Amino acid sequence: MNPFKSSIYWRLLIWFCVANLLVLFLGSFLTQRFIEYTTAVEINWTALARDANQSYESGGAPALGNWIVQQRHEGIDATLYEKGQALSPVWLPPSVRQSLPAWFDAGRNVLLQPRPGLYVSMQQVVGSDGQVRYLVALSRTHTRLRPQTRAKILLGVQLTLSLLFIGLVGWWVARSVARPVEALRGATRRMAAGELSARVGRQGGMANDELAQLARDFDAMAERIEALVAHDRGVLQDLSHELRSPLARLHLILDLAQRSRDAAEADAYFHQAELEIVRLDRMTGEMLALSRLEGSIPGMSRENLDLAELVRGCVERAELEAQARHVQLRLTSPGAPVVVFGSAPLLERALDNLIGNAIKFSAERGEVDVLVRAAQGYTGVSIRDRGPGVPEAELESLFRPFFRGSNAVRADGHGLGLAIVQRVVKIHGGALRAANRDGGGLDVDLRLPLAPGDAVAMPSV
């Protein structure tokens, strides 16, 4: 995974950048205030003026220049003025330079702060020769501190603030990361202990990052596992319930066979036992198929299929059963291929169940119509019979496993065929609907999406 696409990476980067900027600006501010208000060594401007005058009188301009260099190392720019002229050049702000004549004429000491972080002082001093001179000095601080000392104080403050802010940011980030991780660990432990309803949920303050996505994926996985386990338990319960009656009949038939008086009588009982075994085998196979489909594990590959051709094959296979029951099968389909993307064995099984169900519930010499149609984006297959239909109150339960309505006495079955059909249609992204026909009979409508590239308008039938 590219770390630059990780929201956790960007969150860490942004917060550490914010911490460093806070350290930079707040450190400078606090250092300045610390120097201004907590350093006890204030500049004695009067003594500084006497010192400058003494240096000048002892060695002239060269000695004064050396003195100026020494003061500059201590953060003060200063020089002496005599008769309005600087005895040694020094840089002064234009506003200060313009104000000097007025200050000289006033003949009094001046201490100003023209802007924050800048002090200007003018001090009058009388030399041993009686000459009046003026010290003009600038300083970034009101205290006498060497630049090296100020740098050390700034470094110390910034180091302290860096440790403080990085510690706070690190604690906050670690807490925000540890909370969803701990929630995931707790949910995993509960699931391992058998609590399948365990979920991580959305923790308070959880960001929408990879950890939150992992928590959502875990919840989706846990929900899927719980549903599969619940379904398997339900299938096992249903199967155990449904097997009791045929097993009881099989036990009774074998008991009667053992008590038979001759081989012919026993042979009849064994034939009935064989039929019960076939029923048990078919029921178990249908239950396993339904379980596999409910688990969304069809175990079969998918491909583009011509649904019209598939339905035609199912109708041809059902002709023998229809003729045996004197039922007429009619197929209506468009001339052009109707292409869907799916599993041929699964769709054939669903169609066989629907057509076979319609034949079973049709009256003798009845009719079953199978219609294939295509429209914008989907295709439909309708299987219509003229049987007894289904009571309106039972229509919603028609596709439920083991449901056998009030008309089930007309045909043999276990109530699993339509449940299998519904699951096959669902995993193909389609829909299944049943409705009673006017005049009697049932209309089961199966809809499937057309394969990509084939979702075009086609004439309906």
TrEMBL record:
GO function terms (MF aspect): kinase activity
EC number: 2.7.13.3
Keywords of this entry: Kinase, Membrane, Phosphoprotein, Transferase, Transmembrane, Transmembrane helix, Two-component regulatory system
Topology versus the membrane: Multi-pass membrane protein
Keyword Membrane recorded: yes
Subcellular location: Membrane
Domain HAMP: start-end pairs: 175-230
Pfam families: HAMP (PF00672), HATPase_c (PF02518), HisKA (PF00512)
Catalysed reaction equations from the record: ATP + protein L-histidine = ADP + protein N-phospho-L-histidine
Record InterPro entries: HAMP_dom (IPR003660), HATPase_C_sf (IPR036890), HATPase_dom (IPR003594), His_kinase_dom (IPR005467), HisK_dim/P_dom (IPR003661), HisK_dim/P_sf (IPR036097), Sig_transdc_His_kin-like_C (IPR004358), TCS_sensor_his_kinase (IPR050428)
Family matches, as SMART domains: HAMP (SM00304), HATPase_c (SM00387), HisKA (SM00388)
Name this polypeptide is given: histidine kinase
Ranges where the Histidine kinase domain occurs: 238-452
Coiled coil: none
Chain segments annotated as transmembrane: 12-30, 153-174
Native organism taxonomy: Bacteria, Pseudomonadati, Pseudomonadota, Gammaproteobacteria, Lysobacterales
Domain of life: Bacteria
Annotated PROSITE patterns: HAMP, HIS_KIN
Taxonomic source organism: Rhodanobacter terrae
